[in-house]
Amino acid sequence: MTTSILVPPITEQQVRQVIDILAQTYHGRGSVELGDPYKVLVATVISQRTREEQTTAVSERVFARYPDWKALALADEQELYDLLEGSQYRETKAPRLIAMARIVVEKYGGRTPDTIEALLELPGVGRKTANCVLVYAFDIPALCVDIHMHRITNRLGWVHTKTPEQTEKALATLIPRDLWTGVNRLFLQHGRAICTPGVPRCLVCPIRAYCAYGQDPDTPKR
Known about the structure:
- By secondary structure, the protein is mainly α.
- It folds into 2 domains: about 10-30 and about 145-215, Helix-hairpin-Helix base-excision DNA repair enzymes (C-terminal) (Endonuclease Iii, domain 2), CATH 1.10.1670.10; about 35-140, Hypothetical protein, domain 2 (Endonuclease III, domain 1, Orthogonal Bundle).
- It has helices at about 10-25, 35-45, 50-65, 70-75, 75-85, 90-110, 115-120, 125-140, 145-155, 165-170, 180-195, 210-215.
- The chain is elongated.
């Protein structure tokens, strides 16, 4: 049975107001500093189910040994597995990263693809990873919906969805396209600082006045 995606009657003005407040709170509208497409994609795969600090340390080790797609395509799987220590599911990520590198080298001449369709064909790449690459490697507008953005937009009442994939589809009709690039970073910062999993810090939330969860007297908050 498919879960329906319900988008409440939220106006574009309300969406812009919330995003403007978050931008003021976190100092800038999620401005994006573009990175090397190879490093963005590989690091995003490494980051799956892995904490940020661990992702950074593991990625630095991998890039020091394999600085580009050609080097990664020739990687020894056991060696890469060892370098991925600290990243969750490395027994799956190691062979996938090597397979991904070989496809990029053979099919794209060692250049990271820059379309959602091509990225989704690579092993280990789902919509969140693909959209993050579009945004942070190529400055192409896309909605990179992670667990923070999924949780916060449901609490706001913007969407009523069960998965980040459903949330992406719903938000694409709600958030103006000119706000797509960088909006993920704002929700990421807000999700870590205020709108945390479990009991959120609603009493100090700058967008509580716009939030269905925050305005509900029966929801747990602190």
